[in-house]
Specification:
Ankyrin; Multifunctional_regulatory; single chain; Ankyrin_rpt; repeat; two-stranded antiparallel ribbon; mainly alpha; 23 helices
């Protein structure tokens, strides 16, 4: 921004603001320069926000800068008309938010302001300041806004809490829960958003694909706050959602420690263990989640609606040999039959998961592991209701007779 401003001599005030050069800024104001001059970066006050120059912003406000001048801020590929206060909330400039709120309060209620001056409009650019702070994960600003005014509408608070839960902004979740009472239906929605959401990359940018352990801790903290406020929540659903995503490990741990049954069934008769052993986000198995469930008493031999045990699902849609080993160590039945009389070996042999280049060796290693835990030759020759067997699969795929002798 500074380099662009250098090219235009008429934007000397914008440049001084960008640099935080308060002496030059005062000089330009005294010389009669327009404190509201527009540019591709908006008015000088917008530049003060973007450059986080609080002292310059204070000087501009004192010089009578227009507090409602609009600048089209690029918000995830869409232009959102922002006055300086709205921009400051978007960018997390807490000191400037406090400054501008106080200045605007002398003229009108900043809470009710919308671009164009219409407080009741809907649409993309009309989101509440409270919602923006919560959605962009600025808990301190969220708390400030709640303290500035007690006139936030119920729908504003609910929307803000839903956003905060979705991006795992624990501080905002806690503050908003303390600010108002929410219905059971609303609380259920907040929990769903929290369990299916994830943090943004750099606050107002798109959600990131890979979450850290710190993110997982924040999610669990949000879940704890929400459950404390809503004791009647469906914790079984929370446990299942946490089990299927590796980045929800701390929420999984929290719900288990809260006493939720690790063998609870969902509508498909799946247990959390069924969910954990399948590859999902970023093509990963929730290995740590599966191990945690087993440590807390998860039964690997519970059949789902298709008669499949966790071992069937692990070899069909997981492909993680460590998980397969741990399931067998936990007592998983290597000869268990699903609703079509398929064993885990047959399921592993005919799974499309291993059609990926280089995965055939992994598939054979898993088959050998199952063979050793099962009934030997009888396991290879067993046919399911569709007439499939490991022996037929090996012949169809030209697997050599000595395949069992491959190094483990």
């Amino acid at each position: 921004m500074e380099e662009d401003l250098k090219q235009e001599s008429s934007l000397a005030m914008h440049l001084a603001v960008c640099r935080g050069d308060t002496f030059s800024l005062q000089t330009l104001i005294e010389a009669g320069f327009d404190v509201n001059r527009d540019s591709e970066y908006g008015a000088p006050l917008h530049v003060a926000v973007m450059a986080e120059q609080t002292e310059a912003a204070q000087i501009l406000v004192g010089a009578g800068a227009d507090l409602e001048v609009l600048y089209n801020y690029d918000m995830e590929g869409q232009d959102e008309p922002c006055n300086p206060l709205r921009l400051a909330v978007h960018l997390g400039c807490r000191d400037i938010v406090q400054l501008l709120w106080k200045a605007l309060s002398a003229r009108r209620n900043p809470r009710t302001y919308r671009p164009g001056g219409q407080a009741d409009q809907g649409g993309w650019g009309q989101s509440s300041l409270l919602v923006i702070a919560a959605d962009d994960d600025y808990p301190e600003i969220t708390m400030d806004l709640l303290s500035f005014s007690d006139e936030w509408a119920p729908d504003e608070r609910a929307s803000a809490l839903n956003c905060a839960a979705r991006v795992w902004s624990a501080g905002s979740v806690r503050a908003l829960l303390q600010s108002a009472h929410f219905t059971d239906d609303e609380m259920s929605c907040f929990l769903k958003s929290c369990c299916s959401g994830r943090p943004k990359c750099f606050n107002h940018f798109p959600y990131r694909g890979i979450c850290t352990h710190e993110d997982s801790v924040r999610q669990a903290q949000c879940v704890e706050y929400l459950l404390d406020a809503y004791p009647g929540a469906d914790c079984i659903r929370i446990l299942h959602r946490a089990a299927q995503n590796a980045y929800c490990i701390e929420t999984l741990r929290f719900t288990l420690h809260r006493g939720v049954d690790p063998n609870s069934l969902d509508g498909e008769l799946k247990t959390p263990l069924h969910r954990a052993v399948i590859r999902r986000v970023m093509f990963r198995v929730n290995k740590d989640g599966a191990f945690l469930l087993l440590e807390n008493g998860a039964d690997p031999n519970i059949p789902d609606v298709d008669g499949m045990r966790a071992l069937h699902r692990a070899v069909e849609l997981g492909g993680d040999i460590e998980v397969v080993k741990r399931l067998l160590e936990a007592g998983a039945d290597a000869e268990a039959l699903d609703s079509e009389s398929a064993t885990p070996m047959i399921t592993a042999a005919y799974s499309r998961l291993y059609n990926i280049d280089g995965w055939r060796v992994l598939q054979i290693r898993i088959l050998k592991l199952l063979l050793r835990a099962g009934n030997g030759k009888a396991s290879i020759e067993w046919e399911d209701d569709r007439g499939r067997s490991v022996k037929k699969w090996a012949k169809e795929n030209k697997i050599p007779d000595q395949w069992l002798e491959l190094d483990e």
